[in-house]
Amino acid sequence: MANNVLVVDDEASLVELCRIILENAGYKVRGAINGRDALQSIQEEMPDVVLLDVMMPGMDGIEVCRQIRNRFDVSNPRILMYTADSRKETRESSLAAGADDLITKETPIFELPDKINSFFLH
Asked: What CATH number is associated with residue 70?
């Protein structure tokens, strides 16, 4: 099971909501509101999972994912894209950049702990 999660989203309120829900489920959670901060946070302490928004200003989540895979171990951290964009092209681009999986923000936020747990069972 993952213990350490980095939530990356340009909406600070969503980062905070995810943090509360995941901490209540027993996770250690850090947040970042842009790609640069996410990469710096990973450099400082490797998370088990990065919950990564696709659509962010500046460096989007797909580029962040690509940089994580280029800078760090190919298999660590696990990257779970979390996006409002449910198009097939977004899924394909995310996986091609090195994401392990993608879930949409249509998924109720209170289901995130279960999604992360099942993510590690595969």
From this structure: 3.40.50.2300
Give the total number of structural domains in the chain.
1
| Per-residue pLDDT reduced to its tens digit, 92-121 | 999 999 999 999 988 898 999 998 888 766
| Token digits of residue 71 | 């800078």
Strands 78-83 and 49-52: parallel
Q: Which of 59, 58, 100, 57 is nearest to 82 (CA)?
A: 100
pTM: 0.93
Count Cβ neighbours within 10 Å for each residue of 81-118 and write b for 16 or more, e otherwise.
Answer: bbbebeeeebbebbbebbbbbbbebeeeeeebbebbee
Q: Of 100, 106, 86, 82, give the one whose Cα is nearest residue 22.
A: 82
pLDDT of residue 122 exceeding 70, the answer is no
